[in-house]
TrEMBL record:
<dbReference type="GO" id="GO:0005524">
    <property type="term" value="F:ATP binding"/>
</dbReference>
<dbReference type="InterPro" id="IPR001341">
    <property type="entry name" value="Asp_kinase"/>
</dbReference>
<keyword id="KW-0808">Transferase</keyword>
<dbReference type="GO" id="GO:0009088">
    <property type="term" value="P:threonine biosynthetic process"/>
</dbReference>
<dbReference type="Pfam" id="PF00696">
    <property type="entry name" value="AA_kinase"/>
</dbReference>
<dbReference type="GO" id="GO:0009089">
    <property type="term" value="P:lysine biosynthetic process via diaminopimelate"/>
</dbReference>
<comment type="pathway">
    <text>Amino-acid biosynthesis; L-threonine biosynthesis; L-threonine from L-aspartate: step 1/5.</text>
</comment>
<dbReference type="InterPro" id="IPR036393">
    <property type="entry name" value="AceGlu_kinase-like_sf"/>
</dbReference>
<dbReference type="GO" id="GO:0004072">
    <property type="term" value="F:aspartate kinase activity"/>
</dbReference>
<feature type="domain" description="Aspartate/glutamate/uridylate kinase">
    <location>
        <begin position="3"/>
        <end position="282"/>
    </location>
</feature>
<dbReference type="GO" id="GO:0009090">
    <property type="term" value="P:homoserine biosynthetic process"/>
</dbReference>
<keyword id="KW-0028">Amino-acid biosynthesis</keyword>
<keyword id="KW-0067">ATP-binding</keyword>
<comment type="similarity">
    <text>Belongs to the aspartokinase family.</text>
</comment>
<comment type="pathway">
    <text>Amino-acid biosynthesis; L-methionine biosynthesis via de novo pathway; L-homoserine from L-aspartate: step 1/3.</text>
</comment>
<dbReference type="InterPro" id="IPR001048">
    <property type="entry name" value="Asp/Glu/Uridylate_kinase"/>
</dbReference>
<keyword id="KW-0547">Nucleotide-binding</keyword>
Amino acid sequence: MTKTLVFKFGGASVKDSSAIKNLSEILRNRLRKNMIIVVSAMGKTTNALESILAEKLSLKDYSVNSTKIKDFHFSICSELFPEAHPIFAQLQNLFSQLEQELLSPLSQENYDEYYDRIVSYGELISSRIVSEYLCAQELIVVWKDAREVICTDSDFRFAKINWEKTKLTCQKSWKPILENFPILTQGFIGKDAKGRTTTLGREGSDFTAAILGTSLEAGSVTIWKDVPGVLNADPKLFPNTSKFDELGYKEAAEMTYFGASVIHPKTIKPLANAGIPLFVKSFLDPEASGTKIHESAASHEIPAIVLKKDQILISLKVTDFTFIEEKHIHRIYEQLQALKLRVNMLQLSAISVSIVIDAHLFKLDQLLSRLQSEFEIRYNEGLELLTILKQKSEEIPSLLQGYEVLLEQSTRNTFQAVRRKVETKDI
Protein backbone atom coordinates (compact mmCIF):
# COMPACT_ATOMS: atom_id res chain seq x y z
CA MET A 1 0.00 0.00 0.00
CA THR A 2 1.21 3.53 -0.84
CA LYS A 3 2.52 5.41 2.19
CA THR A 4 0.75 8.57 3.35
CA LEU A 5 2.26 11.95 2.45
CA VAL A 6 1.74 15.00 4.67
CA PHE A 7 1.84 18.55 3.26
CA LYS A 8 1.74 21.53 5.60
CA PHE A 9 0.95 25.05 4.37
CA GLY A 10 1.63 27.95 6.75
CA GLY A 11 -0.08 31.32 7.13
CA ALA A 12 1.89 33.01 4.34
CA SER A 13 0.81 30.34 1.84
CA VAL A 14 -2.90 31.06 2.52
CA LYS A 15 -2.66 34.78 3.28
CA ASP A 16 -4.96 35.97 0.47
CA SER A 17 -6.91 34.78 -2.57
CA SER A 18 -3.83 34.70 -4.81
CA ALA A 19 -1.96 32.56 -2.30
CA ILE A 20 -4.86 30.08 -2.08
CA LYS A 21 -4.99 29.86 -5.87
CA ASN A 22 -1.24 29.17 -5.86
CA LEU A 23 -1.74 26.44 -3.24
CA SER A 24 -4.32 24.78 -5.48
CA GLU A 25 -1.86 24.83 -8.41
CA ILE A 26 0.81 23.18 -6.25
CA LEU A 27 -1.67 20.42 -5.42
CA ARG A 28 -3.06 20.07 -8.94
CA ASN A 29 -0.45 17.50 -10.03
CA ARG A 30 0.44 16.28 -6.54
CA LEU A 31 -2.90 15.60 -4.84
CA ARG A 32 -3.75 11.94 -4.37
CA LYS A 33 -5.39 9.65 -1.87
CA ASN A 34 -3.25 8.84 1.17
CA MET A 35 -2.37 12.53 1.51
CA ILE A 36 -3.02 14.87 4.44
CA ILE A 37 -2.96 18.65 3.91
CA VAL A 38 -2.47 20.71 7.08
CA VAL A 39 -3.20 24.44 6.92
CA SER A 40 -2.53 27.29 9.33
CA ALA A 41 -4.59 30.40 9.99
CA MET A 42 -4.53 32.95 7.17
CA GLY A 43 -1.76 35.55 7.22
CA LYS A 44 -1.57 37.29 10.61
CA THR A 45 -4.97 36.08 11.89
CA THR A 46 -3.50 34.49 15.02
CA ASN A 47 -1.81 37.79 15.92
CA ALA A 48 -5.09 39.62 15.36
CA LEU A 49 -6.98 37.21 17.63
CA GLU A 50 -4.29 37.62 20.29
CA SER A 51 -4.77 41.40 20.06
CA ILE A 52 -8.50 40.96 20.69
CA LEU A 53 -7.71 38.88 23.79
CA ALA A 54 -5.32 41.58 25.06
CA GLU A 55 -8.01 44.24 24.55
CA LYS A 56 -10.65 42.13 26.28
CA LEU A 57 -8.33 41.44 29.21
CA SER A 58 -7.73 45.21 29.51
CA LEU A 59 -11.51 45.82 29.37
CA LYS A 60 -11.13 47.70 26.07
CA ASP A 61 -13.52 47.60 23.11
CA TYR A 62 -12.37 44.86 20.74
CA SER A 63 -15.26 45.13 18.28
CA VAL A 64 -13.29 47.07 15.63
CA ASN A 65 -10.58 44.40 15.43
CA SER A 66 -13.18 41.64 15.50
CA THR A 67 -14.94 43.21 12.51
CA LYS A 68 -11.61 43.57 10.67
CA ILE A 69 -10.90 39.84 11.00
CA LYS A 70 -14.37 38.96 9.75
CA ASP A 71 -14.18 41.39 6.82
CA PHE A 72 -10.71 40.08 5.91
CA HIS A 73 -11.93 36.51 5.50
CA PHE A 74 -15.18 37.42 3.74
CA SER A 75 -13.21 39.62 1.33
CA ILE A 76 -10.95 36.69 0.41
CA CYS A 77 -14.00 34.48 -0.15
CA SER A 78 -15.64 37.07 -2.40
CA GLU A 79 -12.58 36.84 -4.65
CA LEU A 80 -12.65 33.03 -4.73
CA PHE A 81 -16.34 32.04 -4.80
CA PRO A 82 -19.62 33.07 -6.45
CA GLU A 83 -22.09 34.90 -4.20
CA ALA A 84 -24.37 31.91 -3.60
CA HIS A 85 -21.59 29.53 -2.52
CA PRO A 86 -22.20 27.70 0.80
CA ILE A 87 -18.86 28.94 2.20
CA PHE A 88 -20.44 32.27 3.13
CA ALA A 89 -23.04 30.60 5.38
CA GLN A 90 -20.33 28.36 6.88
CA LEU A 91 -18.18 31.41 7.65
CA GLN A 92 -21.08 33.31 9.15
CA ASN A 93 -21.74 30.37 11.44
CA LEU A 94 -18.11 30.16 12.56
CA PHE A 95 -17.90 33.89 13.27
CA SER A 96 -21.18 33.75 15.21
CA GLN A 97 -19.67 30.98 17.34
CA LEU A 98 -16.52 33.07 17.87
CA GLU A 99 -18.53 36.15 18.87
CA GLN A 100 -20.51 34.02 21.33
CA GLU A 101 -17.28 32.64 22.85
CA LEU A 102 -15.94 36.18 23.29
CA LEU A 103 -18.93 37.13 25.44
CA SER A 104 -17.81 34.83 28.27
CA PRO A 105 -15.64 36.33 31.06
CA LEU A 106 -11.85 36.47 30.67
CA SER A 107 -9.30 36.85 33.47
CA GLN A 108 -5.64 36.11 34.06
CA GLU A 109 -6.68 32.92 35.85
CA ASN A 110 -8.53 31.40 32.87
CA TYR A 111 -6.48 33.10 30.14
CA ASP A 112 -4.70 30.02 28.75
CA GLU A 113 -7.86 27.92 28.32
CA TYR A 114 -9.75 30.92 26.92
CA TYR A 115 -6.85 31.62 24.53
CA ASP A 116 -7.04 28.13 23.05
CA ARG A 117 -10.79 28.34 22.50
CA ILE A 118 -10.56 31.69 20.71
CA VAL A 119 -7.33 31.41 18.72
CA SER A 120 -8.29 28.00 17.29
CA TYR A 121 -10.91 29.74 15.12
CA GLY A 122 -8.13 31.02 12.84
CA GLU A 123 -7.35 27.47 11.71
CA LEU A 124 -10.97 26.33 11.61
CA ILE A 125 -11.93 29.23 9.34
CA SER A 126 -8.92 29.01 7.00
CA SER A 127 -9.26 25.24 6.57
CA ARG A 128 -12.93 25.59 5.60
CA ILE A 129 -12.10 28.19 2.96
CA VAL A 130 -9.19 26.23 1.47
CA SER A 131 -11.15 22.98 1.49
CA GLU A 132 -14.15 24.51 -0.31
CA TYR A 133 -11.91 26.22 -2.87
CA LEU A 134 -10.02 23.01 -3.69
CA CYS A 135 -13.28 21.13 -4.15
CA ALA A 136 -14.55 23.94 -6.40
CA GLN A 137 -11.42 23.38 -8.51
CA GLU A 138 -12.30 19.67 -8.72
CA LEU A 139 -9.46 18.84 -6.33
CA ILE A 140 -11.62 16.77 -4.01
CA VAL A 141 -10.55 16.68 -0.36
CA VAL A 142 -12.36 15.62 2.81
CA TRP A 143 -12.38 18.34 5.50
CA LYS A 144 -11.72 16.92 8.95
CA ASP A 145 -11.45 18.52 12.38
CA ALA A 146 -7.95 17.85 13.77
CA ARG A 147 -9.43 17.71 17.27
CA GLU A 148 -10.95 14.33 16.33
CA VAL A 149 -7.51 12.72 16.37
CA ILE A 150 -4.97 15.05 18.05
CA CYS A 151 -5.38 13.97 21.69
CA THR A 152 -3.58 16.03 24.35
CA ASP A 153 -3.37 16.74 28.05
CA SER A 154 -4.97 19.88 29.52
CA ASP A 155 -1.85 22.07 29.51
CA PHE A 156 -3.56 24.86 27.59
CA ARG A 157 -1.44 26.81 25.06
CA PHE A 158 1.39 24.23 25.38
CA ALA A 159 -0.54 20.96 25.24
CA LYS A 160 1.43 17.71 25.32
CA ILE A 161 0.44 14.90 22.97
CA ASN A 162 -1.06 11.66 24.19
CA TRP A 163 0.85 9.70 21.57
CA GLU A 164 -0.73 6.31 22.17
CA LYS A 165 -4.29 7.62 21.93
CA THR A 166 -3.49 9.90 18.98
CA LYS A 167 -1.90 7.07 16.97
CA LEU A 168 -4.79 4.74 17.73
CA THR A 169 -7.39 7.36 16.75
CA CYS A 170 -5.54 8.27 13.54
CA GLN A 171 -5.32 4.64 12.48
CA LYS A 172 -8.95 3.92 13.34
CA SER A 173 -10.67 7.12 12.16
CA TRP A 174 -8.59 8.61 9.35
CA LYS A 175 -6.72 5.72 7.74
CA PRO A 176 -9.91 4.24 6.16
CA ILE A 177 -10.76 7.65 4.66
CA LEU A 178 -7.23 8.09 3.31
CA GLU A 179 -7.52 4.85 1.36
CA ASN A 180 -10.01 6.68 -0.89
CA PHE A 181 -9.56 10.45 -0.43
CA PRO A 182 -7.02 13.05 0.70
CA ILE A 183 -7.83 14.82 3.98
CA LEU A 184 -7.52 18.54 4.67
CA THR A 185 -7.25 19.58 8.32
CA GLN A 186 -5.97 22.24 10.72
CA GLY A 187 -2.60 22.66 12.34
CA PHE A 188 -1.96 23.86 15.89
CA ILE A 189 -5.11 22.51 17.58
CA GLY A 190 -6.12 19.42 19.54
CA LYS A 191 -8.42 18.43 22.40
CA ASP A 192 -8.00 17.17 25.95
CA ALA A 193 -9.73 14.19 27.57
CA LYS A 194 -12.76 16.36 28.42
CA GLY A 195 -13.17 17.46 24.78
CA ARG A 196 -11.85 20.99 25.40
CA THR A 197 -9.86 22.70 22.65
CA THR A 198 -6.10 22.89 23.24
CA THR A 199 -3.24 24.33 21.21
CA LEU A 200 0.30 23.02 20.73
CA GLY A 201 2.29 26.23 21.13
CA ARG A 202 2.78 29.16 18.78
CA GLU A 203 3.54 28.14 15.18
CA GLY A 204 2.52 24.59 16.14
CA SER A 205 1.15 23.60 12.71
CA ASP A 206 4.52 22.10 11.76
CA PHE A 207 4.25 19.90 14.85
CA THR A 208 0.75 18.82 13.80
CA ALA A 209 2.16 17.65 10.46
CA ALA A 210 4.82 15.64 12.31
CA ILE A 211 2.25 14.15 14.71
CA LEU A 212 -0.01 13.02 11.86
CA GLY A 213 2.95 11.80 9.81
CA THR A 214 4.28 9.73 12.69
CA SER A 215 0.86 8.39 13.70
CA LEU A 216 0.09 7.26 10.15
CA GLU A 217 3.64 6.00 9.37
CA ALA A 218 4.00 8.50 6.52
CA GLY A 219 6.55 8.25 3.75
CA SER A 220 7.49 11.92 4.18
CA VAL A 221 6.35 15.28 5.58
CA THR A 222 6.72 18.47 3.52
CA ILE A 223 6.49 21.99 4.94
CA TRP A 224 5.78 24.67 2.32
CA LYS A 225 7.35 28.05 3.16
CA ASP A 226 8.07 31.41 1.53
CA VAL A 227 11.83 30.63 1.53
CA PRO A 228 13.73 28.23 -0.78
CA GLY A 229 14.42 25.80 2.08
CA VAL A 230 16.24 25.90 5.40
CA LEU A 231 18.68 28.82 5.29
CA ASN A 232 21.60 29.46 7.60
CA ALA A 233 19.95 32.75 8.71
CA ASP A 234 16.71 34.67 8.29
CA PRO A 235 17.01 36.47 4.91
CA LYS A 236 14.84 39.31 6.23
CA LEU A 237 17.46 40.05 8.89
CA PHE A 238 20.80 38.98 7.42
CA PRO A 239 22.24 39.38 3.89
CA ASN A 240 24.02 36.67 1.89
CA THR A 241 22.28 33.63 3.36
CA SER A 242 23.05 30.07 2.26
CA LYS A 243 20.56 27.25 1.74
CA PHE A 244 21.19 23.82 3.21
CA ASP A 245 20.45 21.18 0.58
CA GLU A 246 20.22 18.65 3.40
CA LEU A 247 20.50 18.58 7.18
CA GLY A 248 20.73 15.83 9.76
CA TYR A 249 17.92 15.53 12.30
CA LYS A 250 20.21 16.52 15.19
CA GLU A 251 21.47 19.68 13.52
CA ALA A 252 17.98 20.75 12.48
CA ALA A 253 16.72 20.10 16.02
CA GLU A 254 19.53 22.21 17.46
CA MET A 255 18.67 25.12 15.14
CA THR A 256 15.01 25.00 16.14
CA TYR A 257 15.92 24.73 19.84
CA PHE A 258 17.76 28.04 19.65
CA GLY A 259 14.87 29.70 17.84
CA ALA A 260 15.19 29.18 14.08
CA SER A 261 11.65 30.00 12.98
CA VAL A 262 11.57 27.97 9.76
CA ILE A 263 10.47 24.82 11.68
CA HIS A 264 8.62 24.44 14.99
CA PRO A 265 11.01 23.08 17.69
CA LYS A 266 8.95 19.95 18.46
CA THR A 267 8.69 18.88 14.82
CA ILE A 268 11.97 17.03 14.41
CA LYS A 269 11.94 14.53 17.30
CA PRO A 270 8.95 12.34 16.31
CA LEU A 271 10.04 12.26 12.67
CA ALA A 272 13.62 11.38 13.61
CA ASN A 273 12.44 8.59 15.92
CA ALA A 274 10.30 7.18 13.11
CA GLY A 275 12.91 7.76 10.38
CA ILE A 276 10.51 9.91 8.33
CA PRO A 277 12.25 12.50 6.11
CA LEU A 278 11.16 16.13 6.38
CA PHE A 279 11.26 18.37 3.32
CA VAL A 280 11.16 22.18 3.48
CA LYS A 281 10.14 23.62 0.12
CA SER A 282 9.11 26.95 -1.35
CA PHE A 283 5.50 27.51 -2.37
CA LEU A 284 6.86 30.32 -4.59
CA ASP A 285 9.07 27.86 -6.49
CA PRO A 286 7.49 24.43 -5.92
CA GLU A 287 9.68 22.59 -8.45
CA ALA A 288 12.91 23.60 -6.66
CA SER A 289 14.62 20.98 -4.49
CA GLY A 290 14.33 22.74 -1.11
CA THR A 291 15.97 21.12 1.92
CA LYS A 292 15.80 17.48 2.97
CA ILE A 293 16.17 16.71 6.69
CA HIS A 294 17.04 13.07 7.31
CA GLU A 295 19.35 10.73 9.19
CA SER A 296 22.18 10.30 6.71
CA ALA A 297 22.77 13.95 5.70
CA ALA A 298 26.34 14.94 4.81
CA SER A 299 28.17 17.09 7.36
CA HIS A 300 29.11 20.73 6.66
CA GLU A 301 30.77 23.68 8.39
CA ILE A 302 28.36 26.50 7.45
CA PRO A 303 27.57 28.69 10.51
CA ALA A 304 23.89 29.04 11.34
CA ILE A 305 22.70 32.38 12.76
CA VAL A 306 19.51 32.61 14.83
CA LEU A 307 18.07 35.88 16.17
CA LYS A 308 15.24 35.92 18.73
CA LYS A 309 13.57 39.28 19.38
CA ASP A 310 11.40 40.48 22.30
CA GLN A 311 13.69 38.92 24.87
CA ILE A 312 13.88 39.67 28.59
CA LEU A 313 17.11 39.37 30.60
CA ILE A 314 16.45 38.68 34.29
CA SER A 315 19.23 38.63 36.89
CA LEU A 316 18.42 37.09 40.27
CA LYS A 317 20.85 37.66 43.12
CA VAL A 318 20.76 35.83 46.46
CA THR A 319 19.84 38.44 49.09
CA ASP A 320 21.97 37.14 51.98
CA PHE A 321 25.27 37.02 50.02
CA THR A 322 25.49 33.23 50.14
CA PHE A 323 26.65 31.49 47.01
CA ILE A 324 24.24 30.21 44.39
CA GLU A 325 23.38 26.59 45.13
CA GLU A 326 21.37 23.92 43.36
CA LYS A 327 18.32 24.71 45.52
CA HIS A 328 18.24 28.30 44.20
CA ILE A 329 18.31 27.12 40.58
CA HIS A 330 15.64 24.52 41.34
CA ARG A 331 13.43 27.19 42.90
CA ILE A 332 13.76 29.46 39.83
CA TYR A 333 13.03 26.65 37.38
CA GLU A 334 10.09 25.51 39.47
CA GLN A 335 8.43 28.89 39.00
CA LEU A 336 9.38 29.11 35.33
CA GLN A 337 7.79 25.72 34.71
CA ALA A 338 4.64 26.71 36.59
CA LEU A 339 4.29 29.74 34.30
CA LYS A 340 5.23 27.73 31.16
CA LEU A 341 8.26 29.93 30.52
CA ARG A 342 11.25 28.50 28.68
CA VAL A 343 14.84 29.61 29.33
CA ASN A 344 16.63 30.58 26.10
CA MET A 345 19.96 31.28 27.82
CA LEU A 346 21.34 30.71 31.32
CA GLN A 347 24.45 32.05 33.01
CA LEU A 348 25.62 31.52 36.58
CA SER A 349 27.96 33.54 38.78
CA ALA A 350 28.89 33.02 42.42
CA ILE A 351 25.91 34.97 43.76
CA SER A 352 23.50 35.38 40.83
CA VAL A 353 21.60 33.58 38.09
CA SER A 354 20.90 35.31 34.76
CA ILE A 355 18.20 33.94 32.47
CA VAL A 356 16.82 35.03 29.11
CA ILE A 357 13.16 34.36 28.31
CA ASP A 358 10.60 35.32 25.65
CA ALA A 359 8.24 38.18 26.47
CA HIS A 360 4.72 36.92 27.31
CA LEU A 361 1.68 38.92 28.33
CA PHE A 362 1.67 39.51 32.16
CA LYS A 363 4.00 36.51 32.77
CA LEU A 364 7.00 38.67 33.82
CA ASP A 365 5.01 40.31 36.63
CA GLN A 366 3.87 36.90 37.85
CA LEU A 367 7.43 35.55 37.86
CA LEU A 368 8.78 38.56 39.75
CA SER A 369 6.05 38.39 42.39
CA ARG A 370 6.81 34.70 43.00
CA LEU A 371 10.57 35.17 43.41
CA GLN A 372 11.06 38.67 44.84
CA SER A 373 10.97 37.49 48.47
CA GLU A 374 13.98 35.23 47.85
CA PHE A 375 16.09 37.18 45.34
CA GLU A 376 17.12 40.70 44.47
CA ILE A 377 15.86 40.98 40.89
CA ARG A 378 16.84 43.22 37.99
CA TYR A 379 15.59 42.90 34.42
CA ASN A 380 15.83 44.45 30.96
CA GLU A 381 13.14 44.17 28.29
CA GLY A 382 13.11 44.64 24.52
CA LEU A 383 16.36 42.76 23.90
CA GLU A 384 17.59 40.40 21.18
CA LEU A 385 19.29 37.02 21.63
CA LEU A 386 21.84 36.23 18.94
CA THR A 387 22.95 32.60 18.62
CA ILE A 388 25.62 31.37 16.20
CA LEU A 389 26.11 27.63 15.68
CA LYS A 390 29.46 26.45 14.26
CA GLN A 391 30.63 30.00 14.80
CA LYS A 392 33.70 31.50 13.18
CA SER A 393 35.26 33.89 15.68
CA GLU A 394 36.36 36.36 13.03
CA GLU A 395 32.74 36.91 11.94
CA ILE A 396 31.29 37.65 15.38
CA PRO A 397 32.40 41.34 15.79
CA SER A 398 30.48 42.43 12.68
CA LEU A 399 27.27 40.91 14.07
CA LEU A 400 27.65 42.91 17.29
CA GLN A 401 28.62 46.22 15.71
CA GLY A 402 26.21 48.97 16.74
CA TYR A 403 24.88 46.96 19.68
CA GLU A 404 25.44 46.99 23.43
CA VAL A 405 26.11 43.45 24.70
CA LEU A 406 24.51 42.77 28.08
CA LEU A 407 25.49 39.11 28.35
CA GLU A 408 27.48 36.67 26.25
CA GLN A 409 28.84 33.16 26.44
CA SER A 410 30.64 30.76 24.17
CA THR A 411 31.11 26.99 23.98
CA ARG A 412 33.04 24.86 21.50
CA ASN A 413 30.23 25.00 18.93
CA THR A 414 27.90 27.82 20.04
CA PHE A 415 28.16 31.57 20.66
CA GLN A 416 25.32 33.53 22.29
CA ALA A 417 24.95 37.23 23.05
CA VAL A 418 22.10 39.27 24.49
CA ARG A 419 22.18 42.60 22.69
CA ARG A 420 20.31 45.86 22.23
CA LYS A 421 20.70 48.52 19.60
CA VAL A 422 22.83 51.49 20.59
CA GLU A 423 20.82 54.67 20.15
CA THR A 424 22.68 57.13 17.91
CA LYS A 425 22.02 60.84 18.38
CA ASP A 426 21.93 63.25 15.49
CA ILE A 427 24.56 65.97 15.76
